[in-house]
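Here is the promised in-class demo. Please do not try to memorize the tokens; focus on the logic of going from shape to residues.
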């Protein structure tokens, strides 16, 4: 796949920047500002820097670092009374940086390999997943961890890497699953990229839950990675190529909805119309996208359920709560499960520090946020942590290993799957 660059024109727009009246009401919602108490690492400070660059100031290392340290969690967007579209601004700022900066040869090769070749290619992802699986089952992972051969930094990244779940979900791509209850809807499931390897069981549970709710679930062959990681990295042109592939694969399928179980993907899929401005098919596509929680809550999900005896606490995924403004649906679904006790944590919509590949790139900040998140979770006494995004699940599992009390981390859909399974 060609085109790992952003294109000229991908930069914060003056009209978007001018909406900010610098009131500062977003500051306390910002995880990086809460940690560092630095204006330049707050939403208002970042917007101020974007205005400077937009007015002709050069892109400096300092600007790059402050924009890069942003989690793109969009909590500031929720907090802002002036309707500043911060997510759009930071994505455009990153594209502008990408477009106007030179990267080292090594960095460029790595980004091209990951963003252009690995993520959009199911066969390559399967090979990488098989290698990851072999690394674990061969005992090599244990040996590497025991010897500490990777050193502190690489060792930390290695521990945060997702595991491969055999068999991969890829074998289901191209299939159609009939409903297991009275037929009501025809939906398409976008299975993700890494999720097909590392969250294969979650994807299977998602299909079962939709089937149990009267859905025929189609998993179209020609779908590809949604491009969310590309958008966050400033690679908007590559994201546009992926968006067009997904639109071609799905938009004319006559589906009632296009479903995703990943909040980060859902947020980008719902914004394909912004990514591909003035594209009627992109608008139609975005209008069909539903997060699985949102969809199930909207259809009054009501298959018979058995008790699930657990106390859970729900962590809002930033791209569901702030990006898509979906907060009530997952909580409603959890409340419907008999036997389940739901306890709210303090600041459930404050970022856990996952943010795509942020935890690998800015591990220090990410782990500081995770530690605080785990304190809030531990205080609830819940024995399970529930969320709505595979990336958050990985981060929270790392949080449990470091600071937790052996809590199990699940997606909302996995709880529903359990409730339906023995009924
Ligand atoms: S982004 Fe919104 S809340 Fe934050 S300073 Fe600007 S106008 Fe105020
Ligand atoms: S997106 Fe999140 S980290 Fe970035 S400025 Fe807004 S609140 Fe802060």
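The designed amino acids, position by position:
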């Amino acid at each position: 796949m060609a085109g790992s660059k952003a294109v000229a024109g991908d930069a914060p727009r003056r009209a978007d920047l001018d909406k900010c009246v610098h009131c500062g009401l977003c500051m306390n919602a910002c995880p990086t500002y809460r940690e560092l108490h630095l204006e330049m690492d707050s939403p208002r400070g970042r917007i101020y820097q974007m205005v400077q660059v937009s007015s002709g100031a050069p892109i400096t290392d300092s600007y790059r670092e402050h924009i890069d340290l942003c989690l793109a969690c969009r909590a500031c967007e929720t907090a802002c009374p002036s309707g500043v579209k911060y997510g759009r601004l930071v994505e455009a700022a990153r594209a502008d940086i990408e477009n106007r900066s030179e990267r080292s040869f090594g960095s460029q090769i790595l980004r091209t390999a990951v963003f252009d070749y690995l993520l959009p290619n199911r066969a390559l992802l399967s090979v990488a997943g098989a290698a990851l699986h072999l690394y674990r089952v061969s005992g090599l992972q244990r040996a590497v961890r025991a010897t500490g051969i990777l050193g502190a930094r690489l060792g930390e990244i290695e521990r945060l890497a997702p595991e491969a779940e055999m068999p991969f979900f890829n074998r289901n791509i191209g299939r159609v699953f009939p409903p297991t209850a009275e037929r009501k809807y025809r939906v398409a499931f976008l299975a993700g990229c890494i999720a097909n390897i590392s969250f294969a069981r979650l994807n299977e549970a998602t299909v079962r839950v939709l089937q149990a709710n009267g859905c025929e679930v189609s998993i179209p062959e020609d779908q590809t990675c949604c491009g969310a990681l590309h958008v966050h990295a400033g690679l908007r042109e590559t994201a546009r190529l992926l968006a067009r592939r997904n639109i071609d694969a799905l938009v004319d399928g006559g589906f009632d909805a296009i479903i995703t179980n990943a909040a980060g993907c859902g947020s980008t899929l719902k914004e394909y119309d912004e990514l591909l401005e003035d594209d009627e098919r992109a608008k139609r596509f975005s209008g069909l996208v539903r997060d699985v929680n949102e969809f199930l809550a909207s259809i009054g999900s009501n298959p018979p359920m058995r008790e699930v005896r657990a106390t859970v606490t729900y962590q809002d995924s930033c791209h569901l709560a702030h990006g898509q403004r979906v907060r009530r649906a997952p909580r409603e679904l959890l409340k419907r499960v008999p036997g389940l006790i739901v306890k709210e944590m303090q600041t459930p919509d404050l970022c856990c520090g996952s943010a795509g590949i942020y935890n690998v790139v800015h591990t220090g900040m990410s782990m500081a946020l995770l530690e605080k998140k785990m304190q809030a979770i531990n205080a609830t006494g819940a024995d399970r942590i529930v969320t709505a995004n595979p990336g958050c699940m990985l981060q929270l599992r790392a949080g449990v290993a470091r600071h937790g009390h052996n809590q199990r981390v699940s997606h909302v859909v996995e709880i529903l799957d359990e409730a339906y399974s023995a009924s």
